[in-house]
Specification:
about 35% helix, single chain, globular, Uridine Diphospho-n-acetylenolpyruvylglucosamine Reductase, domain 2, 14 strands, 4-stranded antiparallel sheet, binds flavin-adenine dinucleotide, Enolase-like, domain 1
C-alpha cells in the first residue's frame, strides 16, 4: 500500500497544467485524490508527477445563470451539499452526492474528479447522463464541450485526451422539475450496485412531458434507459406506466456476471431501482 515514487507539483492556472501535461506524458492531474491515490497505493497507477489542480481558481466556481448551471471540476462534494442555491436548482445533484461514501470522502472528492475517473459504479454518472450534462474541456488544441452521452468511453475511460483538463460540468436550465436519485449500495464498498437518476416534467394534463432516466453501477457501463423514457413520455405517471417503463429501461443495459452477482440479478436490480426512482420523483 505504498505508492511508487512520484514528483508533486502544484499549479495555479489551467494553462500551466496543460503545459505540464505536455512536458511529461506520465504525469497525472490531482484533485481530491480519493480515486487516484488508492490506485497509486495499489500500484495500479504509477504517475511520474502529480499535477495538483485543486487550487486553480477557474476550477472552483459555481455559476448559476438563467439558462445554464456550470460547476467547476474542482468543486468538492461537501461544497455542493453546502450550497443551498444548488439544492434549489438541481435537487438530484444533492440527493446523489449525499450518498457518496462518507464525510471524509465528501470533503475531498470533487465533481470533476468523479467525471474524469469515469468509474461505472460511481454515483454521478447516472446524474450526468439523465441531466444531459456537457463537459467543458481544454487542451493544447483549445476548448471543447463533450455531451454526457459521448463522455463515458469504457470503464474508467472518459473522452478526455492525455493533455486535456476538465474545467467544468454544465447543465442546461431549467431542468425537469421532478428529480430523484436512488441507490442500492454494495454492502462492502458503498459504491452503487445500482443507482438511478430520473428527471421528469409533467404537462398540465398530468401526462409525462420530458423523461430522462439513467442507470449507474448495474451495467458494464452507465447507460441512459431510453426505452423507459419513451415508455413514459405522453402517458400519465402511475403504477402501471412506471412498472412498464422500469421493465423496458432495464433491457437497455449490458450486464456482466462476476464473482459477486449474476447478470440476471443486476438486470433485475436495475428494473427495481428504475421503478423506485420514478416513484420517488413522483413524490418530489
Ligand atoms: C473509501 C471511498 C469510498 C468511495 N465511495 C464512493 C461512492 O460510494 N460513490 C462514488 O461515486 N464515489 C466513491 N468514491 C470515489 C470518490 O467519489 C472520488 O473522490 C471521486 O471519484 C474522484 O474525485 P477526486 O476529486 O478524488 O479525483 P482524483 O482522485 O484526484 O482524480 C481522479 C481522476 O481524475 C483525473 N483528474 C483530476 N482532475 C482532473 C481534471 N481537472 N481534468 C482531467 N482529469 C482530472 C485524475 O488524474 C485521476 O485520473 C469513494 C472513494 C473512496 C476513497
Amino acid at each position: 500500500m505504498i505508492p511508487a515514487p512520484f514528483r508533486y507539483r502544484r499549479v495555479s492556472t489551467v494553462d500551466e497544467a496543460i503545459k505540464a501535461l505536455g512536458h511529461d506524458t506520465e504525469a497525472k492531474l490531482l484533485l481530491g485524490g480519493h480515486s487516484l491515490l488508492p490506485l497509486m497505493k495499489l500500484r495500479l497507477a504509477r504517475p511520474s508527477t502529480l499535477i495538483d489542480v485543486a487550487h486553480v481558481s477557474e476550477l472552483r466556481t459555481v455559476d448559476i445563470e438563467q439558462d445554464n448551471l456550470a460547476i467547476g471540476a474542482g468543486v468538492r462534494y461537501a461544497e455542493i451539499l453546502g450550497d443551498t442555491r444548488l439544492t434549489e436548482v438541481m435537487p438530484v445533484l444533492r440527493q446523489s452526492v449525499s450518498v457518496i461514501a462518507d464525510p471524509q470522502v465528501r470533503h475531498r472528492g470533487t465533481i470533476g474528479g468523479s467525471a474524469a475517473h469515469a468509474d461505472p459504479a460511481a454515483d454521478l454518472p447516472a446524474v450526468f447522463l439523465a441531466a444531459e450534462a456537457r463537459f467543458q474541456v481544454r487542451g493544447p488544441a483549445g476548448a471543447r464541450q463533450v455531451p454526457a452521452d459521448q463522455w463515458f468511453v469504457a470503464p474508467l475511460v472518459s473522452a478526455l485526451g492525455p493533455e486535456d483538463v476538465l474545467i467544468s460540468v454544465h447543465f442546461s436550465r431549467p431542468l425537469p422539475a421532478l428529480q430523484a436519485y436512488v441507490k442500492f449500495p454494495h454492502p462492502a464498498s458503498g459504491y452503487a450496485l445500482a443507482g438511478v437518476a430520473a428527471l421528469l416534467d409533467l404537462a398540465a394534463n398530468g401526462r409525462v412531458g420530458k423523461a430522462r432516466i439513467a442507470v449507474t453501477g448495474a451495467g458494464v457501463m452507465p447507460f441512459r434507459a431510453e426505452a423507459a423514457e419513451s415508455a413514459l413520455e405522453g402517458r400519465p405517471l402511475d403504477r402501471d406506466s412506471i412498472a412498464a417503463a422500469a421493465r423496458a429501461g432495464a433491457e437497455a443495459g449490458e450486464y456482466a456476471d462476476d464473482m459477486h452477482y449474476s447478470a440476471d440479478y443486476r438486470k433485475n436490480l436495475a428494473e427495481v431501482m428504475i421503478r423506485r426512482a420514478l416513484e420517488k420523483a413522483l413524490q418530489a
